[in-house]
Amino acid sequence: MQMARARVLILAGMPVETVSSARRRDVLQAGLLAGLVAALPRALRAADRAAPLITKAIPATGEKIPVMGVGTNHFGRTPYEDVRSILKRMYELGGTVIDTAAMYGDSEVQIGKALTELGLTQKMFIATKLNAPGGFGGIGGRESFERSMQRLQKVDLLFIHFVDSVEPMMPLVTELKKQGRVRYIGITSIRTPEYPQLLEQMRKYPIDFLQVNYSLGDRSAEAEVLPLAQERRIAVMAAVPLGGGRNLLISQVGDRALPAWAADFGIASWGQFFLKYVVSHPAITCAIPGSSKLEHLEDNQAAGHGRLPDAATRRKMEELWAGKA
Ligand SMILES: NC(=O)c1ccc[n+]([C@@H]2O[C@H](COP(=O)([O-])OP(=O)(O)OC[C@H]3O[C@@H](n4cnc5c(N)ncnc54)[C@H](OP(=O)(O)O)[C@@H]3O)[C@@H](O)[C@H]2O)c1
């Protein structure tokens, strides 16, 4: 089976770790690798032969972030030790972007605890989402934000969760940004029928980020949302980049082998194929594949290194997915 072979390649070859000297120093200072003399070589030996970390700039400020992060909507029900290992490993591999939400059960609680223990809170780029009052879980508005802050200790990017909450919540997120309590604000919308409303909001409000679904299985944002994001210099975080648990793109390829040309872009698994497609779109700033298993996190982080497919290769990927190649 191709999938099994690909996984072995990833774990053995690990085309990952391109952490800079400064980053390595940070990790060491944080005490993360103290006493891990035996384990250290796995991360750092790979650093010397790895493909470079891919970053993209947030248009509003020029700040660069790694293109591959982690989505955490299952972290509330993932064993704490696994959450801790995943976040630690992601940082070792160069990843810093974490997406969570006030409504993801105990996800924020587990992330906040792990980052504090690991000494990584200030190193990570943490995005969370605000509930509207009366919304999910009975907590909303300012109370929702204060609870997220208390759980996470730091929020870099605050999304308004869903377009219907944008009107009532925009004054609050704008105020929080003005006060310097968050650095970026944004809107999330994962339903195509909401896009007309989202487009209006993108024109009306000075937002820094959007979060929309984007994958080879759902390219609906390409028509209008992504072009408008580029025009208005709004960063885009791609949600559900692997098609999501029920429609997982990887499970749809069966045992089909990767095309030979995928290796030119350092693609060693179908997961990396789908993720490199997502983050190679010029409007996409980063992707947040949900990864509650360490092996998935490592596979996905590898897609944040090396070369990205060019426009011609993206077309080949689309044709392959459409069954035309
Ligand atoms: N704004 C919104 O309203 C909204 C809505 C939905 C999602 N999101 C965000 O988007 C993130 C991603 O969405 P998602 O998790 O639903 O979909 P996804 O990232 O497309 O897919 C996640 C699924 O893929 C599996 N997986 C991950 N990497 C894999 C790999 N390399 N090989 C094989 N399987 C792999 C995961 O398994 P394991 O978990 O077992 O590793 C999980 O079942 C969420 O975590 C959340 O942060 C936002």
Structural features:
325 residues; alpha/beta; TIM Barrel; 8-stranded parallel β-sheet; two-stranded antiparallel ribbon; 13 helices; 10 strands; 40% helix; globular; disordered N terminus; binds NADP nicotinamide-adenine-dinucleotide phosphate
Name the hetero compounds present.
Answer: NADP nicotinamide-adenine-dinucleotide phosphate
CATH-derived topology: TIM Barrel
- The H/E string reads HHHEEEHEHEHEHEHEHEHHEHH
> How many helices in DSSP terms?
13
Question: What is the level 1 CATH name?
Answer: Alpha Beta
* Main beta sheet strand tally, sense and closure: 8 strands, parallel
Q: What percentage of amino acids are in beta strands? A: 5-15%
Strand order of the largest sheet: 3-4-5-6-7-8-9-10
What's the shape?
A: globular
**Total beta strands:** 10
Number of discrete domains: 1
CATH fourth-tier homologous superfamily? NADP-dependent oxidoreductase domain
Stretches with pLDDT under 50, minimum 5 residues: 1-22, 24-49
Distance between the termini: 20 Å
Percent helix: 40-55%
Alpha carbon gyration radius? 19 Å
In words, what does this structure look like?
The protein has 325 residues and is α/β, with parallel strands linked by helices. It has a single domain (2-43, 53-320), classed as NADP-dependent oxidoreductase domain (TIM Barrel, Alpha-Beta Barrel). The protein contains 13 helices and ten strands. Strands 3-4-5-6-7-8-9-10 form an eight-stranded parallel beta sheet. Strands 1-2 form a two-stranded antiparallel ribbon. The two termini are 20 Å apart. Residues 1-22 and 24-49 have low confidence and may be disordered. The protein binds NADP nicotinamide-adenine-dinucleotide phosphate. NADP nicotinamide-adenine-dinucleotide phosphate is lined by residues 71-74, 99, 188, 190, 211, 239-245, 248, 250, 271, 288-293, 296, 299-300.
